[in-house]
Design goal:
By secondary structure, this protein is of the alpha+beta class. The protein is built from four helices and six strands, in the order ααββαββαββ. It has one domain: Hotdog Thioesterase (Thiol Ester Dehydrase, Chain A).
């Protein structure tokens, strides 16, 4: 079963309601990239009238996590996934619609393949960049995912 943006959003509705009701929506996913958007609204703003950092984090994590989940499904192996570390940089107030994109699909392929070959857990750092409607970068998030084939 192919993972699509629609399936990711339906999953979020039932399993990640905070992300769903904050307006986080997957827009596109393929073998190499994932795109997620979120619009600044009253429900997801901070006291400074811009998007709360945690909402940006949910959108950014979804770009990376959806890619990891898709790659695990494609491998036909039982593989655990977990965020081990993350960091973020904020460069501009997030207002309007912010689009996060991760293009690290190949890194996930390599980590999964190595875990399958060695039986050992692997880590992979993935980057999600958020840009406003004008194409200006507002934040960058990095997530270190751990991947391990289950016994």
């Amino acid at each position: 079963m192919k993972l699509t943006a629609r399936k990711v959003n339906l999953f979020n509705l039932f399993n990640l309601p905070a992300a769903y009701f904050s307006g986080v929506r997957a827009k596109y996913i393929d073998d190499e990239s994932c795109t997620v958007t979120v619009k600044h609204r009253w429900i997801n703003q901070n006291p400074f009238k811009s998007m709360f950092w945690a909402v940006q984090g949910m959108a950014a994590e979804l770009t990376t996590g959806a890619l990891v989940l898709m790659k695990i499904r494609e491998s036909n192996k039982k593989i655990s996934m977990l965020v081990l570390n993350n960091n973020a940089t904020f460069t501009k107030k997030a207002t309007g619609r912010v689009t996060f994109k991760c293009e690290d699909g190949k890194l996930v392929d390599e980590a999964i393949q190595k875990s399958i070959e060695t039986g050992e857990g692997q880590t992979v750092w993935m980057r999600a960049v958020g840009k406003n409607a004008d194409g200006v970068e507002v934040s960058t998030f990095n997530f270190e995912w751990t991947l391990k084939v289950k016994g």
